[in-house]
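Limitations
The structure tokens in this dataset are predictions for the assembled complex, not deposited experimental models. Users should treat interface geometry with appropriate caution, especially where small molecules or nucleic acid strands are included. An illustrative entry is reproduced here so readers can see what is and is not provided.
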Amino acid sequence: MENTWLKLDNAAKLYPAKVRADDTCVYRVYASLKEAVQPELLYRSVCDLKPRFPTFYVKLRNGFFWNHYEPNEQDLIVSRENGDICALMDGHGNHGYLFAVRYDQRRISLEAFHALGDGYAALQFLNALVYRYLTLAGHRIDPMNRVATVDQRPSAAEMEDSYTRYYTGAQKRAADACLAYQIRGTAFLSPAECGVVHGRMETPRLLDAAHRYRTTITKYLTALLVQSIWLAGAENPEVRRLPICINVPVDMRKRLPSQTLRNFSLFFTARISVMDSLLPMPEIIACLDREFETNADIEALRRLLNANVSVEKNPLITWMPLAVKQIMIGAVAAAISNRHLTSSLSNLGELVLPDGMAPLIDHYGVIPPLGTDIPVIATALSSCGQTEITFVRKIIETDVERFFFKGLVRDGVEVTLTTNRPE
Amino acid sequence: MYQCNQCGVTVKTAATRCPLCHGLLDGGPAGTERSYPTCSPRKTRRFWTEFGVIAAIMGFHVLLNLFVSPQVLWSIPFCATVAYSWLLVALDRKGVLRHGITWTYHLLPITALLMLYNLYTNGGGPALSWFPTYGIAFCIALSLLINYGWFFLSRRSALDVLPSQLIISIAGLIPVLLVVLRVIAFTWACVGTAVLSVATLLFILLAYRTKTRTMLQSYFHVL
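Predicted assembly:
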């Protein structure tokens, strides 16, 4: 990366244009260790990983037509958590880096601007960071090819834009959109405020609950979320008039061979048709089966990928000056995108750690980026035999979370909660 | 740890009420933890410190102006420029300017300020007669110097400053071009700015040839 620059990937091009104080496009991944974090070692670990993850240690620059990345040679900053969650990346305070490493008691957190990479990429970076930290702390751990180490060199495959690689130009299909039911509630006083509720459970119990409905964890959790949204809005007539649309991200690395450590996810909308009364779980799951079969099928996703990349390749868009492009993207994003979504649920799957690392770590977790118009979203991540489901909300009411976790308890899953807003 | 009998969940965060149903919790604090630090109040001290320094600088120059050369109120554009620069830095810090301060943020406002000042010093009439000959050249020269200062005093890399310096130095040739085309009258300010611009261009091309090429490639997205 010395004296070089890097194009933003197809998905990343959107984020600099749509970022706002109340839509920061910043998410957090974190690892909770079993011992207190030593800041000096953490700082050394972050510095050591610089040659290994060149796509993370960059700054965003404006070009004439597009943004691009340049290597960032400024000092790195490792700071203590201050209570702000997924706040806007402070260009000055963070020395131009688009990620921030923070610590608090036993937790190491990585907050990243979504243009850098998706949740998978951030988890790989965090995992390598924690591994390096533990190694510096004196633990001898065999990486077992499950974690990136400082003695490896970054490969070109890790830096590629996989969207462009798999773009064929044929069979385009833009995502279908229709108005969706919107969760209503009382907004927090400050747009930067958010409520976070983590529910931790044992993965085998969750798997049992999903298997009882003969489905996967993702579909089970999505169905539970749909049910919770309906119950939380039961008194609102709109819930009986509009469909509930859940945005489900798909990690394309699991569908198409790619090692990229940048964005390579696509989103599809699982739409549950209008419910006059609450449907039982099996019926919602049957409905989701159909949605997943139609929209999460590889051919459908490839069509979506082609549609997304073709927008970028449109000569009108390509030759439009960046300033105009940013205004357009920002306006379009603000005007239409989220009216078609009720909520979002992202299951990042299981993070497999080296055997020697797992006993030193309590759990991993993710806090998703919360936009302006979707007031409640959720993510799930499994690690060390536990699954953590995190809800982030922009409203004071916690009805969706309440019905969701009550549903899990009803299905025999023991849930332990933590929150950032204790009463 | 605490238990919520309503929701059936265990609560690990030290709290008295359930985070879901807000009902009272059962159980003891053993095994609970502080999950997140409480939000620190926004620091306003930095704002007031900066405000004090800026106000002192502006006040000193206003007094200097009034005592030394009251016939020309040069402190007005100076104070406006200082206040504007501070506003830019504050906005940049808040992320409003998205990705840093670019050349447009100082070249254009300084030009506008000087035009306003020109109007003011000529009794409020549309007296822009001297502006094309001196004003544009002066603004460009000032912008070039600001960028030099920014580059040499801050720890930024050459790639941060090159794009704006290149654009401004090309713009610095415009006054001389206008003189050649007989649009404006000949002045030494135009020549001086052109010399400074050519020197800057030569400096960039000789000292940062590779970086300039990389910068141009990235700026226009050509591989």
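Some entries come with short summary sentences. For this one: The first strand of chain B starts at residue 2 and ends at 4.
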